[in-house]
Write a structure and sequence with these properties.
By secondary structure, the protein is of the alpha/beta class. It has nine helices and 20 strands.
Length: about 425
């Protein structure tokens, strides 16, 4: 193994690369790291160990981070069953949470924190596997004590010298050091661009309507809120507002919403914002279908194009249509669904994309890059937005979108709330 050469880029923040084939997520998202804020608010800290090591094994890059047996680890990624991850094997990839904390999650951010006061962030869009301290090498300096497991109680966990991570291609590796876990996470959030300034109305009462509701149905529902003296700040329209959904047209159903601008204006007069559901798979009935074709992948989802949002051209086509058809008439935000994926219906891991990036990189960044496109469009109009999204990644810190899913266990909801603070994501209130 080779020791990595770390460069200090801010107080207690160190960076190294495993090789030259890097494609960092933070570079794709293009958030400006708040390094000056780190230097102004935190004192310098030294690296917490002598070295981090890397090697190439079977076309994978392996990174080995030293540990001791008293450490507790939190993360990587958004979790719903437990927060501490010692001895876990986690194969991080953007996915629908399937009731198993195995690394398939809505926010697979490859960042974890140690209670010893440091965090490790591996900046790559690739799938990353983490082995959280339970792998023992034959050349281990501190091998576990041999046991006769045929007698008495025993544990299958065997502590090794390292946390080991593996992934395709190369990556930037950050070691973030602080006096507490809170300080480490604060530095990580600033490294990823800092947090958003969300609109006050986003903290109000939200309500989503039936999939088949039209304008009059929505207004009748609002009347019921008033009759019962309930506050209502945001009304969410589900798939039926589209002229075609699954895949999406992003155009209004003229029968259900004959005058969308008047509808949005009427609700804004009552201080109610409109939030639109969508997914990112483009229907052939969409006005942007032909324009998006050259910037889409080799496989479809529900007969819709899968845009390669790692390309700025694809994001511009998407954002320009949304500005003209929704944002300019007063729509206040979006609920971006299904960008987490699900293997049964999503594009396969061998799908090709025009950027030349593999399916893993596109899958892991679909959610964060759609957020970026929407956020920047509102920002150019000097308007704030607040929305919902099913998937995110490193860099989500500055995006005004909350992660949501279909898990209705209150205990797992609370665990997700706590876990989200370790990966820089907003969790749906």
């Amino acid at each position: 193994m080779n020791a990595m050469d770390f460069l200090k880029i801010a107080a207690g923040v160190y960076m190294a690369k495993t090789g030259d084939a890097i494609d960092p997520v933070l570079s794709l998202v293009k958030n400006e790291p708040k390094l000056e804020n780190i230097n102004e608010n935190f004192i310098d800290e030294s690296l917490p160990f002598d070295g981090v090591y890397t090697e190439k094994i079977n076309n994978k890059t392996v990174v080995c981070i030293p540990k001791d047996n008293s450490e507790r680890f939190y993360g990587p990624g958004l979790r719903f069953q437990k927060i501490a991850t010692n001895f876990a094997a986690l194969h991080m990839r953007c996915d629908h949470y399937g009731n198993s904390d195995n690394g398939r999650t809505h926010v697979p951010t490859p960042f974890y924190v140690s209670d010893k006061g440091y965090g490790i962030f591996i900046d790559t869009p690739e799938f990353v596997s983490f082995y959280m301290g339970g792998t023992v090498r034959t050349d281990a300096k501190n091998p576990p004590v041999p046991q006769n497991r045929g007698r008495g109680e025993w544990s299958a966990d065997t502590p090794g010298d390292f946390v080991e991570a593996s992934f395709e291609k190369d990556a930037l590796v950050y070691v973030i050091v602080g006096k507490s876990m809170l300080e480490v996470v604060s530095k990580f959030n600033l490294l990823c661009g800092g947090g958003p300034l969300v609109p006050k109305w986003g903290f109000g009462f939200w309500h989503r309507t039936h999939i088949q509701f039209g304008e009059e149905d929505v207004k009748n529902e609002i009347k019921l809120f008033k009759e019962k003296n309930f506050d209502l700040d945001v009304i969410g329209l589900e798939p039926g507002w589209h002229s075609n959904s699954y895949p999406c047209s992003y155009e209004w159903d003229e029968e259900r919403f004959p005058d969308p601008k008047r509808f949005a204006d009427d609700l804004l007069k009552e201080d109610i914002r409109v939030n639109l559901w969508e997914n990112l798979f483009v229907s052939e009935k969409a006005s942007i279908y032909e324009d998006m074709k050259p910037y889409s992948g080799s496989h479809m989802v529900w007969n819709g194009l899968v845009p390669d949002f790692t390309l700025p051209e694809a994001r511009k086509i998407y954002a320009d249509q949304h500005k003209k058809t929704h944002i300019d008439i007063g729509i206040s935000g979006y609920k971006i669904d299904e960008c987490d994926g699900y293997d049964n219906w999503l594009f396969p891991d061998h799908a090709k994309f025009p950027s030349g990036r593999n399916a893993a990189a596109v899958r892991n960044t679909l959610g964060i890059l759609s957020q970026k496109a929407i956020y920047e469009t509102y920002k150019k109009e000097n308007r704030r937005t607040y929305g919902l999204v099913r998937a995110s990644a490193a860099g989500s810190q500055m995006m005004p979108f909350c992660i949501y899913n279909d898990c209705y266990s209150f205990e797992q909801y609370l665990t997700g709330l706590a876990s989200s603070s370790f990966c820089g994501a907003l969790w749906v209130p």
